[in-house]
Every structure is written in structure tokens, then in C-alpha cells.
Design brief:
It contains four helices and four strands. With 142 residues, the chain is an alpha/beta fold. The chain starts with 6 loop residues before the first strand and ends with a helix.
């Protein structure tokens, strides 16, 4: 890898509408120029989850322009790290070329939360903060 090449990180979940998108935005900011960060879904949802957009806006991230995508939609399919953030994506991880380090960090799916909007937002906030802590820890180690 050349001196100016950043390591590539793929964050993978099922729908690419909540967890992987939130993690992608946070890792991009945390890691600065160390990583080139992508996210994708094994079975992408039709659109971003509005509560994921809202939860990220609360902490200063605008992911409203993001779109859901699959690995084949990305500009590269070669990664240095592949991080699965749900058990389904871990089990259905698509074949990817090259050698990469695979990490599995299962987080609850906030899209499955039930109750009022405020009760569901509480789940999005909790998952967001759990991911932020794990990503921060990993960036410190990577």
C-alpha cells in the first residue's frame, strides 16, 4: 500500500438504513484521513430510516443525503477491514476479493424498536452511543 493510500473500511449490515450508515458517518469523522470508509447492506432497504437521520442530526451529523446501497454499488470491492454490525450481515457476508480483517460487532437493530416515536428514538440514541464508543475504541487501537 502506498504512503498516501488510506486503508479501506466497509461497514456492513442488512438494510444499510440505520446502523452501518450511522457508523460510517462517525468513523469518517473520527478517523480523519486514516481510513476511506464505506457502508453497504446485504439486502438494502428502499431508503434511509428517518429516525437514524434524526438521531445523527442530534449530534451534528447530516446523513439525510445518504442513500442505501449494496457492496456492488460501491466504487471498490477491496477492503482492509470489513465490520459487520448485525448478526444477519455476519452470516450473509458476501464474497469479497482480497485479504481483509473481518470484525463482527453486533448491535441491536433500532429499526425494530416499537412504541412511540420518543421510545423508538431512545433505542436509536442508545445504539448510536454504543457504536460511537466501540468505533472510538477501535480507532485508538487500529
Amino acid at each position: 500500500m502506498g504512503q498516501n493510500e488510506r486503508e479501506r473500511v466497509l461497514i456492513l449490515c442488512t438494510g444499510n438504513s440505520c446502523r452501518s450508515q450511522m457508523a460510517e458517518a462517525m468513523l469518517r469523522r473520527m478517523a480523519g484521513n486514516r481510513f476511506e470508509v464505506f457502508s453497504a447492506g446485504t439486502e438494502p432497504a428502499p431508503r434511509m430510516h428517518p429516525l437514524a437521520v434524526k438521531a445523527m442530526a442530534e449530534i451534528g451529523y447530516d446523513i439525510s443525503g445518504h442513500r442505501t446501497k449494496r457492496v456492488a454499488d460501491l466504487p471498490t470491492q477491496e477492503f482492509d477491514y470489513v465490520i459487520t454490525v448485525c448478526d444477519a450481515a455476519n452470516q450473509q457476508c458476501p464474497f469479497l476479493p482480497g485479504q481483509f480483517e473481518r470484525l463482527h460487532w453486533p448491535f441491536d437493530d433500532p429499526a425494530r424498536a416499537e412504541g412511540s416515536e420518543e421510545e423508538r428514538m431512545a433505542v436509536f440514541r442508545r445504539v448510536r452511543e454504543e457504536m460511537r464508543a466501540k468505533l472510538g475504541e477501535w480507532v485508538g487501537e487500529a
